[in-house]
Design goal:
By secondary structure, the protein is an alpha+beta fold. The protein contains five helices and three strands; from the N terminus they run E-E-E-H-H-H-H-H. Strands 1-2-3 form a three-stranded antiparallel sheet. Helix 1 runs antiparallel to helix 4. The longest helix is centred in the middle third of the chain and has 10 residues.
């Protein structure tokens, strides 16, 4: 975890970031590129998408930014202060896939 960084997805500054494997480790991304994301963006990604989805079609910052499921969240979170705590819930689709 790094503090006072910039999120590579939403662009907010002075946020605590975590390392996100663009291709999840579970689907072979252990040594592939990573991105530093703020905690709300990182949690939101994993609440919306399966690891398989992330590995196959959403394995770059650009493809994530342009995906309709998360683009509205990014637009909203950019307006929030870096100190704001955000709750995330799995999408309806993800809750059904148990």
């Amino acid at each position: 975890m790094a503090e006072d960084q910039t999120c590579e997805l939403c662009g907010r500054r002075d946020v605590e970031t975590t390392t996100h494997h663009l291709t999840p480790k579970e689907v072979g991304g252990t040594f592939l590129p990573t991105a530093e994301l703020c905690i709300p963006c990182h949690k939101q990604i994993h609440s919306l998408y399966t690891n398989e989805e992330l590995g196959i079609r959403l394995n770059s910052i650009e493809t994530l930014r342009h995906d309709s499921k998360i683009s509205a969240f990014i637009k909203w979170i950019r307006k929030q202060p870096s100190s704001k705590l955000v709750r995330t819930r799995k999408s309806r689709e993800r809750r059904k896939k148990k």
